[in-house]
Structures are given as structure tokens and as C-alpha cells.
Design a protein that fits this description.
Blueprint (H helix, E strand, L loop, with lengths): L7 E5 L4 H12 L3 E6 L2 H13 L4 E5 L5 H15 L4 E4 L16 H28 L3 E6 L11 H20 L5 E8 L4 H6 L2 H10 L8 H13 L10 E4 L8
Length: about 250
């Protein structure tokens, strides 16, 4: 019996990186999971790993920047598992995270905004009645260390700041419904990081962290998210949880 046995979670961005790490960690705790992402083959590979751990998973290909797809995600989770207890909003378009405000293209701004705070809020609102019907739930949103150092990441940082503020508002407004909302700030090895930094740069960055390494998707990010989704964190809401090897404290 894991701490999430009997619980159902939706995890976006579940095909790779931190999203996949969260799905696997939650599966190890017994959760049934709807795996959401753009690439079905990646989701199916994660689903096989979930199955190997004795948990249940359904792979569901969807683009979270498509508003009609968001309702389909929630409907699919209810159809497959009958309830929703947790939502992990890990997905975010990787395009143009690093860009000066005068250089970033309008299309990239729209993509970051739509796939970030717009999709996050929409999924939160769609999941709310199902969590309320289940007696409560836990939402874990993803922010970024760019909140602390936004220069050259201004639009991306702004999107993540909006997500953090929306989460805090929801933690207050939805607390009486026993729906908790927390935000994590990961610094994690992922394909998205590979777009921003070469392997050599990643090594240099890791060497400057207090813990001297970059985060691991499952062990360092996923396990904390699984804790936040569980009843073991029943008195935690409205928090910004940094999972960055000490980067936040070292700036």
C-alpha cells in the first residue's frame, strides 16, 4: 500500500523530464495516472514503466494549448478511472524560454502564455468539481527559478509568475473545498534544459550549486510531488516549494 493507493492523478508533460518523473514517482506510491503529452509514443513508454510498477496508466495525446483538448483530458481521466484526486501541471511549451523582451516573437509569447498560465488555470477549473466530489484534492503547479532572475527570460518568467499567483489565489479560494494548491520550482535535467544549455554549460551550472548536481526527474522532483499529492501533506497549501539544489538560496 502506497501513500497514493486509490488516488487518480492527471500529469501533463508526462512523456519526458520532470513530468515523467512525477508520473513514475506517483505510480510507485500506488496512483492511477492519466499521462498527458503531445507525443503518444513517449507516453506509451512511460505507461509501460507504470504498469511494471503495478500501477495503472492511460496514455492520452493532447496539446494543452488547445482549449478544447483540456476538457477532453479531464473527461478521459473520469472515464478511465472514475474520479480525480490530483493534478500535476508540468507541461509548458519549450520554445523560446531564453529571449530578450525586445527580441521574442509574438507567436512565441502567445505559445508560452497559452501553454502556461492559461492551460494551467483551465485545467484547475475543470478538475475542481471532480475533486470537490471526491472530498478534496491536490494540485501541483510548476514555476521556475526564472522568477528570481528574469532577465533574458522575461516572458517565460512572467508566465511562471502568473502560475504561482494563480495557485496562491486558488489555495485560499478552494481551501474550504479541501483542495490544496502548491507550486514547485524545479531545476531538473530534461530535454527542455538541453534546449537552453549545452552539456558543458550544464556541468558548469551544476558545479556552482550548493548540492553540486542538477535535479533528477523522479528522485528529486517526482517524489516531492508525490508527497504533495498525498495526505501526508494535508496541511500544506499555497506554498512555493523550491527543488533546485540550493540555487534559489545562492542568488
Amino acid at each position: 500500500m502506497g501513500r497514493l493507493t486509490g488516488k487518480v492523478a492527471i500529469v501533463t508533460g508526462a512523456g519526458q523530464g520532470a513530468g515523467a518523473g512525477c508520473a513514475l514517482a506517483m505510480a510507485s506510491e500506488g496512483a492511477s495516472i492519466l499521462l498527458v503529452g503531445r507525443t503518444l509514443s513517449k507516453l506509451e513508454a512511460i505507461a509501460r514503466e507504470v504498469d511494471a510498477r503495478g500501477a495503472k496508466a492511460v496514455a492520452f495525446s493532447a496539446d494543452i494549448s488547445d482549449r478544447t483538448a483540456l476538457r477532453a483530458i479531464v473527461d478521459k481521466a473520469v472515464e478511465a478511472f472514475g474520479r480525480i484526486d490530483a493534478l500535476v501541471n508540468a507541461a509548458q511549451a519549450p520554445e523560446m524560454r531564453s529571449a530578450r523582451l525586445l527580441d521574442i516573437e509574438d507567436d512565441a509569447v502567445q505559445e508560452l502564455w497559452t501553454s502556461g498560465p492559461v492551460a494551467t488555470l483551465a485545467l484547475m477549473r475543470l478538475c475542481h468539481p471532480h475533486m470537490q466530489a471526491a472530498g478534496g484534492g491536490s494540485i501541483i503547479n510548476f514555476a521556475s527559478g526564472a522568477l528570481r532572475a528574469p532577465a533574458n527570460y522575461g516572458v517565460y518568467a512572467g508566465c511562471k509568475a502568473a502560475i504561482e499567483a494563480i495557485g496562491r489565489a486558488a489555495s485560499v479560494e478552494w481551501g474550504p473545498d479541501n483542495i490544496r494548491v502548491n507550486t514547485v520550482v524545479p531545476f531538473v535535467l530534461s530535454p527542455s534544459m538541453d534546449l537552453d544549455m549545452s552539456a558543458d554549460v550544464q556541468e558548469l551550472v551544476a558545479a556552482k550549486l550548493p548540492l553540486r548536481r542538477l535535479g533528477r526527474p523522479e528522485e528529486d522532483i517526482g517524489r516531492t510531488v508525490a508527497f504533495l499529492a498525498s495526505d501526508d501533506s494535508a496541511y500544506m497549501t499555497g506554498n512555493l516549494v523550491t527543488l533546485d539544489g540550493g540555487s534559489w538560496s545562492n542568488k
